[in-house]
Amino acid sequence: MPISLTGKRWLVQERDDRVVRELSEALSIEPAVAGVLFLRGIRIKEQGDIFLEPSLKHLSNPTKIPGIIPAADRICDAIRNKEKICIYGDYDVDGVTATSLMFLLLERFGADVFYFIPNRMEHGYGLHAEAIREIRKAGTDLLVTVDNGISANDEVALARALGMEVIITDHHEPPVELPETKYIINPKVSGRSTIDDSSSRLSDSSSNLSSSLEGDFTILAGVGLAFALIVAVRARLRPSAGSPSAGSPSAGSPSTGSPSTGSPSTGSPSTGSPSTGSGYHVSERELPNLSEYLDLVAIGTIGDVAPLTGENRILVRHGLEKIARSKNKGIRALMRVSGLNGSMVTPGQVGFVLAPRINAAGRIGDAGTALRLLVSSDEREVEAAALILNQENQKRQEIEKEILGQVLERIEKEGRDDKVIVAHAEDWHAGVIGIVASRIVERFYRPTILITMKNGIGTGSGRSIPGFSLYEALHACREELLGFGGHRLAAGLTIDWDRIQRFRERINRYAEDHLNAEDLIPTIKVDGIIDTHHISDGLLQDLEKLKPFGMGNPEPIFVSRNVRIRNLRLVGEEHLRFQIQSRQGPMTVIGFRMKELLNSLSEDTPLDLLYHLRYNEYNGTRSIQAVLVDLMPSQNS
Predict the structure, then answer these.
(1) H or E stretch at 9
(2) Quick check: 414 pLDDT over 90?
């Protein structure tokens, strides 16, 4: 297989031409776009309609998630009985948005609720024994986890021994042995519900989703799972106590409220008297419009790099629309300090602008700042919090840059012979090394593990490449480690400092048996072959319908063969620019940060081009532009 000028292989993905043609005709879209839909798993018109026009009515009934109805009933009982509820979250953007969502809405439902977010350096990830004791001392009766808890067997046992009941909502991979609680909400715990909730199940008739697109709840981020539970709770609080119709999370109008900043509070129970059924009902007029909170769901889902397919695609598509005109004062303040003032926010702006600022607090500071930003209604408090998060993000970037420079210097000094890069230093920031490991993987396309010292023990974070399971590699080296966890592409570990060199040697021996030379060449998946003369405004309009792009639904990449380029030059100091011929005349191709390829190109040599197609707005004029991904000398010339 030929290698491109940037050292990559191209893989044109296969599709069924008959199915693509049928989709194109049935959906009235360009064949190239129908081909992309095929590669996204769309086979019939009904699926295509939902993908191209995702509506909230297409959301699946959340009561299909095992355990969600008993958990919703338990929360309703806590509201009715004025029990104190603690939301135990996580310090990353998914955990912070999930905690904010759960806290704000339970308070709106009239709950006596507060939250707790662990400190990365003090408590570490997940439930912490000393924190649980303090939460119980605050008078907590019901502990609800978001984005954590599924592996916290000992901590859940402690909470129950202290007199609290525990509801776990967690989207991470469950262990073989689950925590002992009646209330576990994790779609990946298939068929392993710890209770029989058949008597509480609601009719499937409330689901408006086509049977050809059954909802996959396993892809939900922590905030998406929290939202599903809230939908079920809201349904139980409605006077009719009907099914939480997937199509009506927005029923009712928002009521006013002044969310607290997270300290234990008495709450303000909504009007309504205890009754039979779910036990506690609130008038439809007072129940909040859940769709107004989809901005939080979108930020957490994108920030957690969850697949933007199925349920997530619907939630994020509508959540992005909410962000630009958010009623959340903290989100508006964060957008201002971030310089985002557009009428529509993109997944890229969420993932690379908003989410890192929320994450920064948990990485190098106190995630409580991010919580206060998202739950407070005080203008001064949210403005101050937004400024702190912006500063923390700048500090994180400086730390990241410094560590990256040190790692690159070591790689240059020691060479690049290792298939798995392992580097360590005592003073690297534990909250940043995972990001730096990702940067190293991007640059060298090698699995990378960076280790720093914490409390006298090596603490590491690793990132990998497709084709090499980091989790399995660590399992093979477990005798050298104190502990490890994670999945194929990302993992963490702890290790005695004096065993790091032995670990480096051992994991590289493992890699020699599991990685060949071709595995270390990056591969770009291509969504279709296009003749440049077929590029038109109609094609771009159809491509726009595929948004939002992200994990699981990447922006389409097309290849055009044997293309002649004209007017080749540099733009600015590092961007390539040239023109090719399209149906509508000359079309600009821009190659961002590709100046090093300039001397390898000639207008006399035909090229194979890999690119995205986008609209470009300049001086009030809209034109079609190709954004270069890669290129190579034409294989057909």
Answers:
(1) strand 9-12
(2) no
